Amino acid sequence: MNVKKVLDAKGLACPMPIVKTKKEMETIESGEILEIHATDKGAKSDLTAWAKSGGHELLQDSEEDGVLKFWVQKG
Question: Which positions carry the signal peptide feature in this UniProt record (predicted)?
Fold first, then answer.
C-alpha cells in the first residue's frame, strides 16, 4: 500500500485520535492514504464512522501488539 503519511496517535484517548486524523487529512491530497496508529480501543468504531461521514474510505485495519492500525484513503 502506498502510504503518504503515518500518524502516531498511540496513547491518546477519544476524541484525540479523530481530531489528529482530521487535521492530518488536510495535509494530503485526494486519493492519498494516511496510516493511523492508535491504542484507544474506541478508535476502531470512531474512525470507521468518521471516514464514512467524511467521504473517505477505510481501506484496511489491523491490530498488532495492542496497536490498532488503520489505512484511510482521502475522498
Answer: none
Neighbouring C-alpha atoms within 13 Å toward the C-beta of 70: 30
3-class DSSP state of 1: coil
CA 41, CA 56: separation in Å to the nearest integer? Answer: 21
Q: State the catalytic residue, choosing from 12, 14, 16, 58.
A: 14
Q: How many Cα neighbours within 13 Å face the side chain of 39?
A: 7
What's the pLDDT tens digit per position in 48-67? Answer: 999 999 999 999 999 999 99
Rounded (5°) CA angle 60-9-31: 45
pTM: 0.94
In the chain the domains, ranked by start, together with CATH numbers, are 3-73 (3.30.110.40)
